[in-house]
Structures are given as structure tokens and as C-alpha cells.
Amino acid sequence: MTNKPHSHAQWSSRIAFMLAAVGSSVGLGNIWKFPYMTGESGGGAFVLVYLVCILLIGLPILMSEWLLGRLGQKNPISTMNRIAGRLKRSKAWVLIGVGGILAAWLILSFYSVIGGWALAYIRYSATASFIGLDGEGVGALFNGLLGSPGLLLLWHSLFMILTIAIVAGGVSGGLERASKILMPALAVLLLVMVGYAATTGSFEAGLDYLFSPDFSKLTGEVALAAMGHAFFTLSLGMGIMMAYGSYLSDDVNIGRTALTVVILDTVIALAAGMAIFPVVFANGLDPAAGPGLIFQTLPLAFGNMSGGVLFGTLFFVLLVFAAWTSAISLLEPIVEWLEEKSPLNRLTSALVAGVATWILGIAALLSLNDWATLTLFGMPIFDLLDYVTSKIMLPLTGLATIVFVGWFMGRDEVRAQLNMNGMAFAWWRFSARFIAPIGVAIVFVYNLFH
Ligand code: PFF
């Protein structure tokens, strides 16, 4: 009994850690990006590769980032500097941290634009704009938003302000408390939506689409998309999880905790798919509609169910919340780094990083309308930002991370950090040294030549 206060402190910090990790990983990637990528890639084959990548590549890399963070006890750049220095390895490993910060900046710029869409949809839903809409109506509502640079700018700015405010003010205590209620609420609401899809949509067709892989659809590009998304959805390859690892206490079992986060993240994504595709098929919509998919299918459901105004509004509020906690985790490492490397204080660093992201976001949102024909490497800016980060930068930094842990760190040190027994550790090490790096490499090389 005497150690009760101590164990309570440990318990609450462990919960705080889980909330931060889940808050970062569960976001627009699960509810917005996963369904539309599945639809663009033709369904089950993408889902299967995604699940394999999550398990064989994502999980060991998540564990690697956490163990590096716990060992280094610093921000990602200093952590890599410190560990590589101690092990007498090249200082070039620091590039993992640098690449991560750059990727975080690029991702947040377009992430905030989509966060803005979700904000706009709170308003549409609360003002009953979905009521009575058919497939064409929801399409028109969405295209109206997309075609208006002014509206997009307004909502993108608001989302960015929300994000900067938390990172600048450090009022994360309240955010943590809110997360404890709002994240489970989001999960419950998603289940309600799955229930709705099961009773009124083409549920079987939806499930079939998600879970019966058509291997003729499995191209190198689909595999790359699925692998890139595994990194994106788990917030890997950005140093974010490494930064969080520095707050992990020694008695936390990294493997078990990582598995919990991975399962939660995956279940939420699959639930989003199960809520959306039955509605797509029941209403003759196009599963390959692209980034607008959830903004066109869910309103159709909300517009036709009883209590849809309330449900819809609540859903988009929770979606914004999930996006917000992820966005905060994207801005945080940039601000931390600025604060350390420049004379700026936290508030100014948050403003500088936030405004730099906001400006890049404006280029991204203009590429959805006025600048649609302006392309770089054959892609509009929005698509380019997504492509370069998810399909190139994250897998590369992730690959470097796991190669470092698998090949350049001592076996015993890694084993002590992971606290795993014989067989489990042997398996883990095998996947860290061979399966994960070779998997990433194959997908990369294949795409280079096709
Ligand atoms: N994992 C988040 C999502 O799925 O929405 C997005 C994200 C957050 C990606 C943080 C990367 C990151 F570092």
C-alpha cells in the first residue's frame, strides 16, 4: 500500500502516453484517407497488403522508434545523434530526424486543408444541409466547397489556428482529459455508422469489396500505396513516435503497447471502411471518387437517417478532434526543433512553424481549384505533397530506422529495451533485420522499374 501514490503516477503517465500515441495515429488517415485509397485501388487487394504491411513492417518500426526514443531521451535529431555517437556509428543517422521534421511540415500543410473540410462539414451538418440530398446533391455540396478558394482558406486557417494555439500554449492537459472521452466516443459513433450501413446499405457488397481481394488489382503501385499508408496511419517515419518514446518509463512493455496502438488504429480504419462502402454501393456512387469519398457518402447517410443532423454534427466534431490531435503531433516536433536550434521562444517558434505550414497549405488548397492545371512532376501540388511524403520520405526514414536498430545496435541492448523472451525476440529480430527492410526495399525497387 505504501507505494500507492507512485503506482498511480505511473498508471496515469502510461495512460497519457497511450492517449498521445493513439491521438497521433488515429486521425484523418483512418477515416478519410484509408477508405478513399481503398476505393481508388480497387478494394480488398489493397486492404490485404495494408494489413500485412501494418503487421510486418509498421509494428516492428513503431517498436524501433519507441525503443530509440526511450534510449535517447531527447528529440529525434538529438536522440539519433546521441545513440549513433555512443555506438560510434556515422553521424549521417541524424538524417532520420531531419527527414522526419521535413516530412511533418509537408504533411501538416495538406492535412490542415482536409481538417478544414471536416470543420466546414460540421457547419453543413449542423445547419441541416444534408437533409434530403441525393448522390448528386452531396456531390454538388462538396464541389462547391472545393471550388471556392475563399472558403477553403477560411477553414484551413481556422484549423491551423486551433493547432498552433495548443502547441504554443502547451495546454495539453485539458486535451488529454478530453481525449479520454472523445476518442472512445468517435469509436462508438463509427460503430453506429457501421450499424446503419449494415441495416440500410449494401452491407454484403461493402464487406466483399473490403475483404475479398481481387488479385488482378494488385499492382506495384497499389502495394506502394498500401505500404506508404501503413507509415502514414501509424505516424511512422517522422520522428514523432521517437519523440514520444522518450517519455516512456522503463517498465512499460513496448511490444504489448505497440500492438495495442496498432490494433486500435487498424480497427478504426476498417470500421470507417465498413461504414462507408455499403453506402457507396447502395447509392450507386463511385468507390474511386478520390479524396472526396467520405464527404460525399456519409452526408448521404446522415441526410436520410433519423437524428441525422445530430449524429452528423457529432461525427464531424469528433473527426475534427481526431484530426486535431494528429495535427498537434505533426507541429510539435517542428516547434521543438526550432525552439532548440534558434533563439526563438516557444510561442514565436509555434507561430513561425505554423505560418510556414499555413502558407504551404494555401498552395495545396489552390491546387484543388485555381491552380489545378499547374503541375510539378505531373502532379498538382496537393497530390505531390502526399506522394512525396507517404510514398517516398516516410518509407525511407522508416527503413533507415529499422536498419539502424536491426543491424547497427547491439543485440543485447535491443533485447533489454524490448524485454522479450527467447522465441519472441528471435522472431522480432528476424523481422527487423530481414522481413521489414526487405519488404520496404522490394516495393520501392519494383516501383522504380515499372
Ligand atoms: N497518423 C495520422 C492519421 O492517420 O491521420 C496522420 C499523421 C500524424 C501522420 C502524425 C504522421 C504523423 F507524424
TrEMBL record:
Keywords: Membrane, Symport, Transmembrane, Transmembrane helix, Transport. It is a multi-pass membrane protein. The keyword Hydrolase does not apply. InterPro entries: Na/ntran_symport, SNS_sf, YocR/YhdH-like. CDD domains: SLC6sbd_Tyt1-Like. GO terms for molecular function: symporter activity. It is found in: Membrane. The chain crosses the membrane at residues 12-32, 44-71, 92-114, 153-175, 182-203, 223-245, 257-281, 309-335, 347-368, 388-409, 430-449. GO terms for cellular component: membrane. Belongs to the sodium:neurotransmitter symporter (SNF) (TC 2.A.22) family. PANTHER family: TRANSPORTER. This is Transporter. It comes from Kushneria avicenniae.
